[in-house]
Amino acid sequence: MFVVLLRRSLAYTLERAGYRISALENAEDALAIAEHDPPGLVLLDIGLPGMDGLEAVGHFQERMLAPVIFLTARRRTLDQALGLELGGDDYITKPFDVNVLLARIRAVLRRSQHPIITRAEQTLLAVGDLVIDPAAHTVTVGGRHVDLAPREFGLLYALAIEAGHVVSVDDLAALVWGAEFEGEPQVVYVHLRWLCEKLEEDPHHPRRIVMLREVGYKLEPQAA
What we know:
Elements: E1 2-4, H1 8-16, E2 21-23, H2 27-36, E3 41-45, H3 53-63, E4 68-72, H4 77-85, E5 90-93, H5 98-113, E6 125-127, E7 130-133, E8 138-141, E9 144-146, H6 150-160, H7 169-176, H8 185-199, E10 209-212, E11 216-219
Parallel strand pairs: 1-2, 1-3, 3-4, 4-5
Antiparallel strand pairs: 6-7, 7-8, 8-9, 10-11
């Protein structure tokens, strides 16, 4: 089930694609319905009357685990970046091709059901004083617990399994978000910036997550 904050035309298109839809005009009504009928995915327009999408995503995350795709007509990188930082799984700018939106929906649902880390890979992974426990979904730095969102965790894990080696932005996007996101660097940059804020002593001069311009990123071990 989806909570879709769009007009009836889009709801009709999604119903024809086989999805069960609740189409609401504002976030307050969507949250009220989601309380007793939890959604499988939320399409959340940033430019809503009353509570806007950037505020609403926090309320959705407090009450349910459904992935969120932001829709924006503003064509502003700030909106897209802030939406992802607040917990969105993807964004798409209006006007958009319906087939592109349907492909993004399928990709986000697939990722939410099939995480990057398989059961065979669920062993402790240490890179210097940074320790990742995939089974428990925890990260510690020098013994200090670091709370990471699912995509941040997946991105860190993708870098950790190639620690000391450069991983391209396209490869990171494909590994963590899916092949559909190759050529979509913004989603990677946003989550890497947030990772640096949580992992680095000086996020403006990172030493763990190192960027090699026009090549990619690598995770460097740091001593305790």
